[in-house]
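Standup notes, protein team

Yesterday: finished cleaning the Candidatus Neomicrothrix parvicella RN1 set.
Today: TetR family transcriptional regulator structure.
Blockers: none.

Input for TetR family transcriptional regulator:
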Amino acid sequence: MAAAGATPRKQRLSAERVLEGAVALADEIGVEALTIRKLADALATRPMSIYHHVAGKEAILDGMIDLVFAEIDPPPVDLDWKPAIRQRCLSARAVLACHPWAAPLMESRTNPGPATLGHHDAVLGCLRRGGLSLEMTAHAYALIDSYVYGFALQEANLPATGGADMTEFAESIIERMPAKTYPHLAELTDDYVLQPGYDFRSEFEFGLDLILDALLAAANR
């Protein structure tokens, strides 16, 4: 037991701590601004110490994406493929909302880690267990993740998604959007976006259900 007033013991550096620190820092400042020096400062260490645990920036990005994939719930094996994939997609969107820098990088890494590979394999296994042909599995796999990542990217870049922020943003746009010139935009904004309870994020489930219903119909032809 440490004596009263003693200096707290410095947490030992490890590859896991480096990657977790990188994710936390990217959440704060964005992945473009992430540098080895800034990461070292955040971890209270020296830049060269980072290289004792990871090979460099690309290895850090690989590991960061693997940590993000590890946070996403895989499709539950005790559900039919459609509700299982739906649950997985809701988890993916929630995780990507917590890490808004991650969506553009999710499929960009050329050295995927075990969590990344395991997650993809679980999704494919869910679709195959559900009776989808190999061709339909490939179609579903591409379509579903294109939608999830695309929505996450759009959500991360919107100036507002709902509530008072959306009202303020929409009203500022209306000032430069005369209804006589842009009648359909004005109608959507006034009669839908500015109505109580609107939240852009709720559009995710609507679109997801359309995609899953269409895939189910196509698979049953």
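Follow-up from PR in the comments: The chain has ten helices and no strands.
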